[in-house]
């Protein structure tokens, strides 16, 4: 069993297989009509949990803890943990937004939400906040983190400036995540 649970891909695959099994179980299909809306809602929530979970990990744990980590141990975080976490972070952001836009389209709420039409303002606020947050991930946080982590060339002054910019953008996303989650969880 330790070999199975030691393999993240196997665990994720088994989790998805179990979930798909539930989708086709009589107790599920007796109460819910299986359609694309349910599939994309499930995927949207899954990717959203990964994205926001990592956002909160970075801001509640990693950023505040880094100053206390001895200098000789910091490369363990910057070379191994942070790049892997940022990989899942940015792709979860993209997949959350993509599945969310598909879901809004399936519910006939995409145009209405993005345009803040009456009755769709709440979902519109959530959608726009998520779009701003995802843009922050891809166009501010990730390019600056590449400098901080040494994945692209930068001198010490550029790294310090990039670290500050990435941290501020990440904290902005924490702030925006709170009203975004309110809007997203109260629409339906």
Report on this structure.
With 188 residues, this protein is mostly helical. The protein has 2 domains: 1-34; 35-185. 80% of the residues lie in helices and 0% in strands. The chain contains 8 helices and no strands. It has helices spanning 2-5, 8-23, 26-29, 36-65, 74-106, 110-114, 121-148, 156-185. The mean pLDDT is 94.
Tell me the Rg in angstroms. 19 Å
**Low-pLDDT segments, ≥5 res:** none
How many DSSP E strands? 0
**Number of helical elements:** 8
How much is the average pLDDT? 94
Proportion of residues in helical segments = over 70%
* Gross geometry: flat
- Terminal-residue CA separation: 41 Å
Structural class: mainly alpha
The figure for the number of domains is 2
Provide the β-strand percentage band: under 5%
SSE pattern: HHHHHHHH
Biggest sheet: strands, sense, closure? none
Care to give the gist of this entry?
This protein is mainly α and 188 residues long. 80% of the residues lie in helices and 0% in strands.
Which labels suit this protein?
188 residues; mainly alpha; 8 helices; flat
Write the layout of secondary structure elements.
Blueprint: H1 2-5, H2 8-23, H3 26-29, H4 36-65, H5 74-106, H6 110-114, H7 121-148, H8 156-185
């Amino acid at each position: 069993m330790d070999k199975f649970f030691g393999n993240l891909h196997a665990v994720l695959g088994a989790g998805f297989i179990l979930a798909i099994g539930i989708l086709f179980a009589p107790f599920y299909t007796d109460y819910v009509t299986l359609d694309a809306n349910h599939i994309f809602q499930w995927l949207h929530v899954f990717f959203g949990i990964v994205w926001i979970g990592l956002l909160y990990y970075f801001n509640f744990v990693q950023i505040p803890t880094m100053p206390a980590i001895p200098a000789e141990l910091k490369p363990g975080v910057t070379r191994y943990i942070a790049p892997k976490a940022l990989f899942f972070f940015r792709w979860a952001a993209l997949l959350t937004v993509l599945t969310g836009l598909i879901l809004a389209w399936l519910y006939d709420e995409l145009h209405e939400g993005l345009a803040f039409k009456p009755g769709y303002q709440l979902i519109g606020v959530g959608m726009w906040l998520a779009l701003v947050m995802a843009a922050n991930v891809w166009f501010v946080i990730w390019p600056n983190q590449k400098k901080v982590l040494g994945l692209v060339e930068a001198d010490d002054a550029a790294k310090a400036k990039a670290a500050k910019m990435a941290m501020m953008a990440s904290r902005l996303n924490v702030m925006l995540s709170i009203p975004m989650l309110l809007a997203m969880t109260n629409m339906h």
